[in-house]
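Retry 2 of 3 after timeout on previous attempt. Resubmitting structure tokens to design endpoint.
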């Protein structure tokens, strides 16, 4: 979409509006768990222009607590998109070149149908009656949105963290629909520690006295304490020890502090703030459902997992960050090994950054250069990729090679 007006972030995509479309109105979505959903509302944003061939599109898959607002600024709230530093004119995902799409996930709470939405059978919020979801269910909704927008082939599907899981799943199940997939700071199978972190967060929410078996909206209450604690704990896992030390150390929050159980250290104040602001933008039920989806994700467990992508090869970029301990470099290396087992073209890069898992959201120059080079150089080398009629930038980049490689 073109900017609505000049304003904050005008050097990027400018002011944008979130759009809403109702999908699966004629035929219901068959979920992996066996249930069906119909008349699914999907919140989405687009940036740039789709070409006549419908093949210069890039889909952005968001992480656990993301939304459709990936770039630009909203009127009113006027906040930048969560990946605004990566998406825009001249940026690594260049909207002068690519038609970029981002949508809120099925099960989310930022405009797309989820457990907080109204159950048409009861007239009340779904609550825990909402069906359990799977990463593949997200992908089916993404595909339907792409068809609605007129996309014929995705130049790339890009995602970080849980977004990387969606990009990976989509590439394995429908490889003929894309040329490239970027899987950033992600995982193909959570460890016991990962599952444990999410389990504690869900327990904090469900044991909150205001949870009311998931029907807290009908009761006019909200499990704020549990949701804030879940966010605080999760936020610890998103930042490295090095990052916390550099930002806070053991600095006191107040000059005259007395020992006790209040907020004495700066890091405590920071976590408390993160928990409080989270309450204004996220729903406790969505947190339950989306974290559980990640627990069950294990695409390579299917014996035939690589069969389709071997017939229709996708070029992969897998990126990890050296201080990310939530989805450590080992998670990315496992993805690379599985893809190499299928003799697929994959580039792997482990990037130095002190900011842990959150690095994928930040402006780390070598990371941004890597994403740009992958998208633009692969456009010239992939047999099915969009060709703009212009030579790709950074044509001397080592990412130009289609051979499996690690770039240090």
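Retry 2 succeeded. Sequence:
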């Amino acid at each position: 979409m073109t900017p609505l007006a000049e304003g904050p972030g005008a050097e990027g995509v400018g002011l944008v509006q979130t759009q809403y479309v109702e999908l699966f109105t004629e035929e219901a979505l068959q979920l992996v768990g066996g249930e069906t959903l119909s008349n699914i509302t999907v919140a989405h944003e687009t940036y740039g222009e789709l070409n006549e061939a419908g093949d210069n599109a890039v889909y952005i898959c968001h992480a656990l607590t993301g939304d459709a607002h990936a770039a630009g600024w909203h009127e009113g709230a006027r906040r930048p998109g969560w990946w605004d530093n990566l998406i825009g004119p001249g940026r690594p995902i260049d909207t002068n070149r690519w038609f970029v799409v981002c949508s809120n996930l099925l099960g989310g709470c930022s405009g797309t149908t989820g457990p907080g939405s109204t159950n048409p059978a009861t007239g009340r919020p779904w609550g825990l009656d909402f069906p359990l979801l799977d990463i593949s269910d997200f992908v089916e909704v993404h595909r339907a949105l792409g068809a609605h927008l007129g996309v014929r082939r995705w130049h790339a599907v890009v995602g970080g963290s849980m977004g990387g899981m969606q990009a990976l799943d989509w590439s394995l199940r429908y490889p003929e629909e894309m040329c490239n997939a970027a899987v950033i700071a992600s995982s193909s199978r959570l460890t016991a520690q990962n599952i444990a972190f999410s389990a504690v967060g869900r327990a904090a929410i469900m044991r909150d006295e205001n949870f009311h078996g998931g029907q807290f909206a009908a009761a006019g209450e909200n499990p704020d304490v549990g949701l804030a604690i879940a966010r605080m704990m999760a936020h610890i896992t998103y930042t490295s020890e090095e990052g916390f030390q550099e930002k806070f150390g053991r600095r006191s929050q107040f000059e005259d502090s007395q020992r006790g159980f209040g907020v004495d250290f700066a890091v405590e104040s920071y976590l408390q703030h993160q928990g409080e602001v989270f309450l204004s933008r996220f729903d406790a039920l969505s947190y339950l459902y989306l974290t559980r989806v990640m627990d069950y994700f294990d695409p390579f467990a299917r014996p035939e997992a690589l069969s389709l992508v071997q017939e229709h090869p996708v070029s992969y970029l897998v990126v990890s960050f050296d201080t990310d301990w939530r989805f450590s470099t080992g998670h990315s290396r496992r993805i690379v090994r599985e893809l190499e087992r299928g003799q697929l073209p994959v580039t792997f890069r482990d990037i130095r950054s002190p900011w842990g898992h959150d690095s994928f959201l930040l402006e780390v120059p070598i990371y941004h250069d890597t994403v740009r080079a992958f998208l633009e150089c692969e456009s010239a080398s992939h047999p099915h990729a969009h060709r703009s009629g212009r030579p790709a930038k950074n044509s001397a980049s080592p990412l130009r090679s289609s051979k499996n490689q690690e770039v240090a």
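Attempt log closed. The first strand starts at residue 15 and ends at 16.
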